[in-house]
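Sequence design from tokenized structure. All designs in this work follow the same two-part layout: the structure record, then the generated sequence. An example of the structure record is given first.
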């Protein structure tokens, strides 16, 4: 049997840090995994079928022609077998069974690439939540409506501590309390204030890659808020 590869692959895609490789490192830290068994080195990325275009972006970045499989009715997966790529991911903090480890995924990423890593982590394990609230004022017997917005990022506690230190130091984002989720190993930070949301949006938009539905949701909210403020100023 020939040793020729069945699928194309740029096995050095993660050998050097770039904005793109840093983004995908963050994304894999959230929605990917690496494993080794019987000297076979595997890299997997798992996504919701609605984000198929995003897994295709990942394949383009690594020069892969590997097929995308339906892992279940709710997820699709691409699996790569390559020792060089495995070793590079491991070198930058992606380890087997990472969900059960408390090590920081971002500690080995230099500061000038951390914002891209955070963008990837947010696209994989983050969310932008908008909730409309109604409050009744008894004194004036009136209902008041307001919009509550929240940016959430999930990871282990040490990764989130490093992220908050970085966001505070370089992006003027106030410290957020790190809270435990229902999972034994997963924690979350939540950014609420307009200043924090806008500053995170600036960081997120600077990434060369974004998950389009999340970028659209944040941009749409900020543009609507700016238009509302502009309208009030002109009245």
């Amino acid at each position: 049997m020939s040793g020729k590869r069945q699928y194309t692959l740029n096995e050095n895609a993660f050998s050097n840090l770039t904005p793109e490789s840093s983004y995908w490192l963050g994304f894999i830290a959230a929605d990917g995994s690496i494993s080794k068994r019987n000297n076979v080195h595997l890299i997997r990325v798992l996504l919701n079928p609605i984000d198929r275009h995003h897994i295709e972006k990942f394949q383009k970045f690594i020069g892969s022609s590997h097929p995308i499989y339906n892992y279940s009715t709710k997820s699709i997966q691409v699996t790569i077998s390559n020792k060089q790529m495995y070793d590079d991911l491991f070198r930058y903090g992606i380890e087997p069974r990472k969900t059960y480890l408390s090590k920081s995924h971002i500690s080995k990423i230099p500061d000038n690439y951390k914002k891209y890593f955070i963008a990837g982590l947010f696209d994989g394990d983050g969310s932008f939540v908008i909730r409309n609230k109604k409050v009744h004022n008894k004194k004036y017997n009136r209902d008041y409506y307001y919009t509550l917005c929240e940016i959430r990022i999930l990871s282990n506690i040490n990764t989130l501590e490093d992220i908050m230190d970085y966001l505070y130091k370089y992006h003027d984002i106030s410290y957020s309390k790190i809270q435990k989720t229902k999972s034994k190993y997963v924690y979350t930070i939540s950014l609420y204030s307009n200043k924090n949301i806008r500053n995170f949006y600036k960081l997120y938009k600077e990434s060369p890659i974004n998950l389009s539905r999340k970028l659209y949701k944040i941009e749409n909210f900020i543009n609507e808020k700016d238009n509302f403020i502009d309208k009030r100023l002109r009245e």
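The two ends are 77 Å apart (CA to CA). We note this feature because it recurs in several other targets discussed in the main text.
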